[in-house]
Design a protein that fits this description.
The chain is α+β, with helices and mostly antiparallel strands and about 140 residues long. It has four helices and seven strands.
Length: about 140
């Protein structure tokens, strides 16, 4: 019997592809693909699925027996996460999305600081897993 894990779509507020890619890399994904037009996602057996995404972490970087992880840009400019049911059960759940949102926020602040001429005085994660960043206007 062939068991196919279907994909679930999760709405996000992510708008910057660059910050999303940086956030995924900060979470430990070694290779993240970014495409101008959506590309197909593959299941754990290497089967091409009908789901497509602009930003993709291929299954070999997600985990053993995983499916590709994708993010497709919607008409409103936000990215929607495309996560298989299997991967949601094995760690790509709401806690994982919370961590991704934190890393995305960190990347957004760092991009702003660089663009606006701020120096990062301090950047750390607290015991409650909050990210604390202190900026100072550059000289």
């Amino acid at each position: 019997m062939h068991c196919v894990s279907h994909y679930t779509r999760v709405k996000t507020q992510f708008k910057s592809s660059e910050n999303l890619v940086r956030a995924l890399k900060a979470m430990g994904f070694k290779k993240v693909e970014q495409h101008a037009s959506p590309k197909g996602l593959y299941g754990y057996q290497g089967d091409l699925r009908s789901d497509k995404a602009h930003i993709i972490v291929r299954r070999e970087y997600v985990g053993n027996a995983s499916n590709d992880l994708g993010f497709i840009q919607r008409e409103d400019g936000t990215y929607e996460a495309i996560i298989s049911a299997y991967d949601r059960q094995t760690g790509k759940d709401e806690r994982w999305m919370t961590r991704l949102r934190r890393e995305y926020g960190r990347s957004t602040v760092m991009e702003y600081a660089k663009r606006e001429g701020y120096d990062v005085v301090e950047s750390k994660q607290t015991q409650s897993e909050e990210i604390r960043i202190v900026l100072r206007r550059g000289a």
